[in-house]
Request: fold
Amino acid sequence: MSASTSWQAVIGLEIHVQLSTVSKIFSGAATAFGAEPNVQACAVDLGLPGTLPVFNGAALDLAIRFGLAVGADIAPVSIFARKNYFYPDLPKGYQISQFEQPIVSGGVIRARLGEQVFGVQLVRAHLEEDAGKSVHDAFHGASGIDLNRAGTPLLEVVTEPVMHSAAEAVACLKALHTLVRWIGVCDGNLQEGSFRCDANVSVRPGADAPLGTRCEIKNLNSFRFIEKAIDYEIERQIRVLENGGVIRQETRLFDPARGETRTMRSKEDAHDYRYFPDPDLPPLIVDPARIEAIRAALPVLPDAVRSELLSLGVNGEHAELIASERELYSAWQALRTALPGEPKLCANWLCGEWLGALNAAELAVSAAPVSPAALAGLLTRIVDGALSGRMAKQAFEAMWTSGESADQVIERLGLKQIEDGDALGGLVDSVLAQYPKQAADYRAGQDKMLQFLVGQVMKASRGQANPAQLNALLRARLGR
Amino acid sequence: MSDRDLAPLHSLRDLAAELADGATTPAALLEQSRAALDACAGLNALITRLPAPAAPGASGGHPLWGVPYAHKDLFCTAGVRTTAGSKMLADFVPPYSAHIHERLDAAGAVLVGKANMDEFAMGSSSEHSAFGPVANPHDPSRVAGGSSGGSAALVAARAVRFATASDTGGSIRQPAAFCGVTGIKPTWGRVSRYGMIAYASSLDQAGVIATSAVDCAIALQCIAGHDRRDSTSQALAVPDWLDQLDRFDLQGLRIGLPTPMYGEGIDVEVLEAVAEARRVLEQAGAKVVDVDLPNAGWAIAAYYVIAPCEASSNLARYDGVRFGHRAEGVRNLEELYTRSRTEGFGAEVQRRILIGSFALSAGYYDAYYLKAQRVRRLIAEDFARAFEHCDLLLSPTTPTPAFRIGEKLDDPLAMYAADVNTVAVNLAGLPAMSLPCGYVGRLPVGLQLIGKSWDEGLLLAAAHAYQRRTAWHRVLPESLR
Reply:
């Protein structure tokens, strides 16, 4: 193959989405993150002899909610299967998963990359239990096992291999990440491992060529690492092929320190998982009424929110932001209800001052010192002309610090626009008297002098003059 | 057989009445049991004998209150070691109890020990125990059967009034037949498996062994019923079986004789004893018809694929990491696994793990596991068709009476053939019993009754009707006469 071959990368993703249930998928132990090792592992999680799994229906509801949100099919009957392999943090020597009949089949994730919108087809999403954790650095000469995570419910989402760049893969992951948090099935915490991704990467000499041999990259726990790892892997495979080599099917591990992927195990060492239906668990039968109840309770989804915002004239960047987080959308809805005629003003303030202040303070939306209702109160004062934009910003800062309402702050700081024509007229007259030359220059045609005079009046009013009114008054007084 | 060779007619019902009116006490029963356990210690029927079994609290009126019993040693008992007959669990003390133990405890039954068994319930002779073989009370040179050999031997030796047991391919019925006692394996899903150490989950079923159908009914009544900790236990009402026993009449009962269970390999003396039992039932008004089970011949083959497949996975948890036997001086993880499992498991368990791992592996799954599952479905359909013509089935439990200790130890296939009449029942999930119906010399012969799903009541009632007309269930081992 020549160096001029136009290589096409082909990428498929497998994402482990940790479902936000209170207890584990097959036991009553808690799923909370960060507990002391092994305090959240009961007899079932430890795989003690004679213990049996009992399926947690809450995990089913979340899986169905996800399936409906991506337009997938929900299987009326799905089967739990055992995936058999030995590892110290896998207590039973098998993982309960779904193999031949998963709960969710098909569906699409709609992702955005710049202006481009594309759909990523899903193969399936199946329910399974998580393994525990091996701790390799806590004990000298031995590894520790923490089984708190063992039995935590996961939904493994598998995409078709339809992405062709690291950027597309990351865009897909971000869309999925937004969605699972939006519909409340996962907290999306990458650091705590609530959202984990493996990527299958291959390259081929052109879009019409048959698929190349793929490598699976594991250990990808940030969007930045995912992008780096896939980019590296694509380049590596092209380099190997252009040098006349062959790609061997293998599992590779991403090393964030070096920005490289390296071989973890080859195909020859791959496990034979010896899947078979778990005889301890009857087939999972889903009542159609249950699906319909979950469908009815499904919130408006990010795609619909984005379209709605754009149709209201909100700019693309703000629409994207508001459609990225459910709580932000709730805040938006509160503003919209209070100020139905001002979608752009609402979006500008929500995504500008408000979100900016939240980010600067590193606060969650729910912890904002200025509630959406309070913000609506402030915006109402802008719309009714009581406050200029500049004064509103001043008022917002005061509200943020004190927790007062807009009207309380306006009262306390005396932040009221001078809209009284007489009061404003008095200020204008005294400024014109103070600057006769500049007034004359304006009358003689020097337009820029108007700005100077506006500035002086504004200064004299301590910023409280209504700018539009001031402009009109000055022009009238100067006869132009 | 003279009267002095027979145990008196004395059911758990009679015992409950005596306890209620003070004619005997739990302490007296415990003392009798202690003496009997001492007397039969040579049988090696117990793995763990409780040093000081606790007398029960105040009677709640349950018929098992104060009654000494033993658990097969695969039912977890909090604070009392539970070995499953394996070196792997020789020191395992569970922190929790099996569902059936909680039930029996609540009833006030008194646990005196944990009964010996084939390791992880894999075997038909109780010779595959890390704690040594169990001898048959009727002839100590013979096996007690398996895998619940300890449970059957203890009941036959009258050391306990009843014992719990489990049946995956015949492990209640076959030792009951060999030891001349009565055992019932209920419908799969009738008794919770929670806390029962698993061998092959889709076939494993807890049940009981006692000296009569009445006593089986009382003990089974206590442990049966839904338990939400076992997702495969069925949420069905459990009928009052004693009431069913008392009202039952054999008149008009249709009994099917499954022709494949009377075929090649069944001893003539066994066939004669079963034929005699059939005549007893016919004289009481039952009607007998021949029925076919066309696919029953494949039962052993299907069983010895499905059970090992499930076992290979169920036993993966014994890896030396969290509990159970852990090899010493290992250099790495693989060695920890390999040596812990090689040292901890006996030969028969290792054989079945290897068979199961092979049959489930890539490229063989369809040919073995899936095909065996298809056979299993066909066999279940055979039974369903047979039950269109009859109410229950009658056959020999085993092809022969108890064989000699060591006789089949080196020939696994001959050992597996001892289950020829019992495994099909597990594949179909049906309830079945074994009860004594005669003797070949000193050795008991077992009669198997098989019922429709959830119809344990009819089985128990028919068995009771038979036992009212015969005395085989009262025959004592020579050492007790």
About this structure: Residues 3-250+402-409+418-480 of chain B form a domain with the Amidase signature (AS) enzymes fold (CATH 3.90.1300.10). The mean pLDDT of chain B is 96.
